[in-house]
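Q: What does the assembly look like in three dimensions?
Context provided by user:
Components: two
Sequences:
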Amino acid sequence: MVYCDYRTLLMVYTLLSVGVVILGGALYLTYAYYMQQLTGIGADPAVAPDIAYQLLNQLTVVAIVAAVLFVLLVFSIISTRTFARRMAYRISKDLSFTRDQFRRFYELSPVPYLLIRPNGDIIRPNKASVRMFSLTDEELLQTNIFDLISVPDNNEKKAFYKESVARGVPIEQKEVQVKDKKGALRWALLSIENLEQHDKNRQGLVTLVDIHEQKELERIKTEFLSLASHQLRAPLANLKWYIDFLLTRRAPQLSEEIQGYLLKMFHRNEDMIDLVNTLLNLSRIEMGRVQVERSDTDVTQLVRGIIEELEPAARDKAITLHTELIEGLVFNTDGKLVRIILQNLLTNALRYTPEGGSVFVRVQNTSHGVVVEVQDTGVGIPPEEQPRIFQKLYRASNAKQIEVNGNGIGLYMCKALAEALGGGIVFESKLGKGTTFTVDLPA
Amino acid sequence: MKKILLIDDDLAFSEMLSEILKDEGFDVLVEHDGLRGFERATAEHPDLVMCDVMMPGMSGLELLKQLRDDQWGSTVPIILLTNMTQPEAMAQMAQGSAHTECLLKTDWTLDKLAEKLKVLLAV
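A: Here is the predicted structure of the complete assembly.
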């Protein structure tokens, strides 16, 4: 038997009841009508049987329909009752989640739980918490929870948590360090829930979720950052200077062939330096460490500088670079960040514009700052992919076909940096026609 | 011949730069530790000091400060060498005192360095 939803059954039940009432009413009215007809014509013996026969026929049909509906009604009531009985049974099962079961659940949970008094004294640790602190039950029972946790670099926070618990205010998912018997520190997420409403015998439930591995990974990431900055950049810088030295100071001694190779090495090395810089910037953004250092910046000069750098690439693809700049437009921003944004947008524009196309750079002065537009006649961004274009590591499908070596970081970084500067970045794109990125930079 | 004191704990970089500077026609002294670099500077009075920012013994910025407090060192041209991606702070610090430049190891070219040396040494 299929148990449908309790509410559906109620609805069917109601509809059927209404149906039966209506049909019953119709039945009575028909009967009354014919009776009136019969008496009206004075019960002509020739017509009466005929009318009575017709009446009987119709009454039969109505009776059958009513019978069917009645059966359905009974059936629905029975099934509803069975369903209700089953529900009741299930609920009774739930209630039979006994104190014993609950105790075992608390004791054996892999998550460290501790029941504490409002002052933080531990009254009931579970097995996982005993493991976490590597203390015995007895030892834990003589300890205050706040003697076991610490908040690095901010001991005021600990005092604040302690006070919250004393006042019965819950604490949710705060990063703390817990100290075990040997003094080893582990990162954990601390939550303290208030169990009882009444002040008397009030207890708090402490939950500590071990996030040590996550924090370790974060630390490794930070270390990698420093590794990348020093161990990678240093040799790249070294190479750069040697190649530069050979090219500018030893050129006469070198054949054209060797000079050509050296130039290629120089450029590949510059690419590597750029990549390392990008990764460093990305890590900074990830760690929320973008430092905005504002100073009066000549945007026009900045744009010219970038265009000058990119001109060789544009020439190679016969792309015309059009600029609409405002001479001597100086405003207060972080030139270094603006440079990264525009460099990325222009590099993209050149990369994804077919040979012979155009790239436009427009700088506009607004009441609150500067707006820079970078427009290209490139391949465009597929409409269905547009919402994801600023996501980290995301690359549009057509972009991947054109340039295999992209990293999907550029636009993500542009957006993050524009936002760090208090502005934003938007775009408009038509597939096969081109894309326009608009960067809003408030002063 | 102008004398340049180069202080950098990165052995490969200081070796490379000293070779290049010698080739440019300078007399180059090399130290790999901030403190010893400072002692050498005050003892030998070079015409210009190039020093790394992050160094054992004494950081480049500390060295800069100490040299500027010194009677001889107050006017000696100093070029800070850095590997950091955000040289603005360094540049500002360098601008704070006269005769100070900040060189980003991955950004500068030899021609640019040669030009700066020419200006700073007034040759």
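Follow-up: The mean pLDDT of chain B is 85.
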